[in-house]
Amino acid sequence: MTTRTVAVVTAGLGQPSSTRLLADRLAAAAARELGPSTSIRVIELRDHAHDIVNAMLTGFPSPALREVIGAVTGADALVAVTPIFNATFSGLFKSFFDVLEPGSLDAKPTVIAATGGSARHSLALEHAMRPMFAYLRAAVTPTAVFAASEDWAGGADAGSDLDARIGRVARELAAALDGRTATAAPDPYDDPVPFEQMLAAGRPA
């Protein structure tokens, strides 16, 4: 069985960070959908910040950064997660993708995700991140995932809506890798209880 690799790039600045937490949950969902032969590589950009800046200034990545770039460009799929600062992706996140060689993400199945203080920042996924990855010619999944502070209000495992979005994007990623159509989660409103039946249930016996 061929091992498929997923590179997870996370640009959180703190340790721990909600950005890394979202990245880990996306990685776990992708691994479940893709099966046991999946290899996940998580890359914390904060660990390579100085090398990224040096590569932008000199045009030459260090050996450590070159290995990270190779892991991203050589992976079968990419999950890219950034915090939202001033209505867009972080400078560290953008700088990393700026040092990639042109064409290195061509047609790569890619999930985009972000974290922010409130849900109103979620549009950054569509007005900033998706256009950037379109320019890089990555094959971005239809669903993007945003996690606001309220999604973590009940702890790391909270947020059924967030879970649903993560599950949906994981299915889309698996479908992109397998060349099949993603199957949607069952809609609880597809088979409603008839109104007459609800009225009958409310009548006294």
Automatic annotation (TrEMBL):
<keyword id="KW-0288">FMN</keyword>
<feature type="domain" description="NADPH-dependent FMN reductase-like">
    <location>
        <begin position="6"/>
        <end position="152"/>
    </location>
</feature>
<keyword id="KW-0560">Oxidoreductase</keyword>
<dbReference type="Pfam" id="PF03358">
    <property type="entry name" value="FMN_red"/>
</dbReference>
<dbReference type="InterPro" id="IPR029039">
    <property type="entry name" value="Flavoprotein-like_sf"/>
</dbReference>
<dbReference type="InterPro" id="IPR023932">
    <property type="entry name" value="CE1759_FMN_reduct"/>
</dbReference>
<protein>
    <submittedName>
        <fullName>CE1759 family FMN reductase</fullName>
        <ecNumber>1.-.-.-</ecNumber>
    </submittedName>
</protein>
<dbReference type="InterPro" id="IPR051814">
    <property type="entry name" value="NAD(P)H-dep_FMN_reductase"/>
</dbReference>
<keyword id="KW-0285">Flavoprotein</keyword>
<dbReference type="GO" id="GO:0016491">
    <property type="term" value="F:oxidoreductase activity"/>
</dbReference>
<dbReference type="InterPro" id="IPR005025">
    <property type="entry name" value="FMN_Rdtase-like_dom"/>
</dbReference>
